[in-house]
Amino acid sequence: MYVLGTVVASLVCFLLLKWTKKRRFCLDTKRLHGKTVLITGGHCGIGKETAIGLAVRGARVIIACRDAGKAEEAVREIRRVSCSMNVQHMELDLANLQSIRDFSEALLKREKRLDVLINNAGMPCVLDWTDDGFSMCFGFNHLGHFLLTNLLLGRLKESAPSRVISLTSSMYKYQKLDFQDLNYNIVPFFTYCRSKLANIYFTQELARMMEGKGVTAYSVHPGFVHSNWTSHFSTVFRMLLWLVMVLFSVPCEAAAQTVIHCAVADEVLQHNGKFFFDCQPAKLHPFAEDEGAAKKLWEASERMVNLT
User: 111 versus 27: which is more confidently predicted?
Assistant: First the structure.
């Protein structure tokens, strides 16, 4: 009886784990010939799988990251897997505002169109500072992409219909923004949660501002993903996370499907500004749909990055 109970319990646990890791795949086969896609952090993890998925569909893909060596290696792999040579890389450091400005200037000179901007790169729960004195999570995850998107917004409008997709996380629900201290950097987890909430507010306000101008915006929660985000932590902490990731995380290929869906599917156009998970719109907590907070964050971010 004990053995039977153990077997049944193990089977139930296995089925529950399998169910929690089940994900929809983007089945839209639309071709993207003539379209240009920019993916930040496209050299690894979700970004690389997204790049492969869009290159397979015929898009011209540009991956942006600060490590040229890793980017070159990723470009070779993406080209090999997608059977597309139309994949390039450019250097970008989202923790440095001048790097973002230099990158944007170079991209605008080089590329005549930009159809999809995917703000994929992200910094996990770390206590650090950007080169401009912002908390690493808020400065990298939100302000960096905020400035980048605004500097490229003109080209996105010229290439309309175009899309901006920003990766966020369901962890947004555990914190609210403190507009008296947006640069909060004390508890790493709280800092991360606030930056992910900022990604959602940014998407909503961008969608409102671009209404009728041919640019739509979406925020995406990819799920708990087995990728290299743990590389920012100590070896001991990575070892502790390993079992949790094996049991509960999804592979990068599965996590990238919602990003690809928002980049190619026509059905998402009716959900401008919305939050997506598992290739469909998902419900947000009421405080994450505060139009006033989104507008206030946008204005504060403009001041923080000296955007005129």
Answer: 111
